[in-house]
Structure formats: structure tokens, C-alpha cells
Amino acid sequence: MTFINYASREINCKIVYYGPGLCGKTTNLQYIFDSTAPQARGKLISLATETDRTLFFDFMPLELGTVRGFKTRFHLYTVPGQVFYDASRKLILKGVDGVVFVADSQEERMDANIESLYNLEENLKSQGYDLMKIPYVLQLNKRDLGNIIAAEDLAAELQRKGEPVVEAVAATGAGVFDTLKAVAKQVLTELRKG
Amino acid sequence: MADTPILLREQQYHQLKAVLARLRMDSSAKVVFLVDKDGQEIASQGEVGNLDTTSLASLAAGNVAATGGMAQLIGEKEFPTLSHEGERESIHISVIGRLLLVVVFDERSSLGLVKLRSKQVSHQLATMFDEIANGDYDDLDSPFAGITDEDIDSLFS
Description:
Chain A has five helices and eight strands, in the order E-E-H-E-E-E-H-E-H-E-H-E-H. Chain A is an alpha/beta fold. Chain A has a single domain (about 5-194), classed as P-loop containing nucleotide triphosphate hydrolases (Rossmann fold). In chain A, strand 3 and strand 4 (about 55-65) form a beta hairpin. Chain B has one domain (about 10-155): Beta-Lactamase (2-Layer Sandwich). Chain B has a five-stranded antiparallel sheet with strand order 3-2-6-5-4, sandwiched between helices. In chain B, helix 1 runs antiparallel to helix 3 (about 110-135). The two termini of chain B are about 30 Å apart. In chain B, about 35% of the residues are buried. Classes of the chains: A alpha/beta, B alpha+beta. The interface of A and B includes residues 5, 42, 57, 72 and 97 of A.
């Protein structure tokens, strides 16, 4: 949920990266963190297990700049992708302004993508949101691997409403900022509507 | 969407800060801040220094959300207060409707005092926030009303 503070002239919005386990949600945030000037971002908080799997969420505040005298800040969150962390995923969707679905392009992860996307729709619904109405981007990640499904086939299977589709290799940063830009733009456009 | 944006007027912001300042003094706390349940920091007061209040706000909200989830699993609506006591620094969180009142304190105060003082301002903060959430903001110009595609693109250039 957007928070507009007229006293400090700040606008804060919440973006959530969703997707199956090991699809690269945390890697997206890590790349944004590594390639952003320290003054434009806060700490990257990772609540992870000892084996670096996301346990609860990753969080990073990112300041994009000023629009009409208001500092525009995005709070980026990831959810834990593993199936059994569903209760946590629901909690993190509370107050969301925009969602990025990170799909794993590998053939053997297709079922996991579909299950996670279905889970996203259900969990959004349980929080009172509708995937068809919320700012949303589909990222096709891991495009550098060998055993991947063609982008158009993957998009045909996973695209829900004509949302922007971005091909990415989060580990090298390809497509990471394009994805963020695509979702941020939709969130700001929603704000313009009022 | 499920929630409408929170719009905070300058005067309301300063009123909230004044309540937090008094609570901080009365409870001998280091820092007092108010966070939305979704993790957005609304206002803070005290020895913030190098404290990363943005991250703390997000983690406090995550903490309350997780314990709230546990509460529901055992048949409770929520746990209205949470306390974490460290060797030197401690945190007390009160859930006030959609708000979290977070008090950071050290040996200059005590959990009992912080609990008491937090409870005393809870009602006042709840009333103030109701006014903020249900207020009429037609007179406020949305900073985004006249935003152009070029404005949005410029954020990424």
C-alpha cells in the first residue's frame, strides 16, 4: 500500500518478487543492491537459512529519485519460494503495490512455475487483491542456461493478462532493471489514476 | 486494490511526532517509532543516529505478521504486544489496529515502564490514525496527478 508523507515529501511503494524456489528472486535483489549507489539504497536484509535459502523474506529499500518534489522510494521484497513456506508468502503480500513473477526458464521447472503462479493468484486473492488488476510483470529468468523453454512458449503458458514479459539472466544483471522499471512504471501510473 | 494509500498531512505528521516525543520522554526510551503493519515507517522520534529505521520498520512488521500468523494457528486473533530483551538494548512492539508502536530502550528504562507508557498512548494514536485513514483529502494535490511518462522514465535514466 502506497504511503504518501506530505511532511517529509516522500512516497513509499511495495514491490514483491514472487516465483518458485531457486528461480532467482533473491539474485534479482542482490544485483540491484550491488549495482546501485549506496546513497540510493538501504541495506539488503536477508532472512535466510544456513544454506542461503530464503526463510522469510529479503528486503531492500531503493530510492529512485524525485517526482514533482517527492522522493520516490520502492521497498523491494522477495518471498520464500519453497512450497512449504506458504504462510510466510501470504504475509509478505500484505500491502503490495506491484508484483514481479520470476519464472525459471528450465524445462524441468515448468511445473514449479505453474504451481507458483497459481499460488500467487490464490494468495493475492486471500489478501483482497486481483492479479488481473494489480501492477504485474513476468520475468523469464535463467535465459543463459542450455535446457530452457523458448521464450514465446514460456510466455504463452505463463502470461496472464498481456503483462510485460522480460527475458533475464539475474546472475549477470541482464533484464533485472528492465523488470524493475516495468513494474515501477505500472505502480506510478496507478498512482496517477488516483 | 485492497488498500487505499495512506496520505499523511504535515500537521498530522507533527502531531504524531509530538505524541511519540512525549512517550519517549515518559518511558525513558532511546527511540520510538510508528510503523504501518505493511512495514512502512510513518514517524520516528529519538536518538536515531545510525539506526537503520527503514529496515527495522520492515522487520518489525514481519515479526508482528509472523507472530500474528502463529496466534491464529492456536486460535488467538493476534498477540497485541511483543517484547525482545537483549543484553543492553531491548524492543517493545504494541499492535494498535493498523499501526505498530515500536519502542527501543536500554538500561535507563524497564520493560514494565515501556509497556505502561505505550498502553497509555495507544488509544490516542489509534484515534489520530483513524482520522488519517478516513480523512477527506480532496484538497490535497496528488503529487502524481500531473505526472507524465517522461517523469517516470526520468527516474530510471
